[in-house]
# Entry
Amino acid sequence: MNVHLYVWQRLTAALMVPLVLVHVAVIFYATRKGMTAADILARTRGSIAWASFYGTFVVAVAIHAAIGVRNVLTEWSPLKDRGAGIFASAFGALLLLLGARAVVAVVLP
Amino acid sequence: MTMRHLSHRQSVLWIAALVHRLSGLTLAIFLPLHFLTLGLAIHGEAPLESFLRWSDQPLVRLAESGLVFLLLVHMLGGLRVLVIENLPWRDGQKELATIAAGLSAVIALILLARLF
# Structure
């Protein structure tokens, strides 16, 4: 792993610690008496705060997971650095796209 | 490979690194599905509600609890890496940090089991 990827992976990891804690707290809160789509969307729709929170989360996790997948492929698969990099970049782009779509779906009124 | 070359695999640090890697890999596989599910709301409340009622099945709830557990394990394992890399730790303390992360994960699992 080169230095840039190493730093990005650590930075996104540090950024996601509080995000994960809040996300897990929300899961505990939302599931305390069953989870409905109406409850979820009432909380998120039109909320700039949740849009920013989950938007940041999606960007951070897409970068972090892509770098992690690249490391695993480099060490555990026959792919060379270039192949692993292409696959990981495509995976990161997919996460970014699907994640952004999910945020839009739950946040737009 | 000789036993001597595999002996590091009994180290608590090696096991912690493997757990961190496998939990991360599982979460990476799960994430696109998670995003696709939430994306159902783009067509309105009904498709998401329909999925959530499907997910009420005990096996699906168990899998969801498992994923939350893996998320916590991966986060704690990541904290362990950040602490070890950025603070002047000595060898014995690394093992202590790993045991602490493991204990935290067990506590997280107990909390999840109570919820389930």
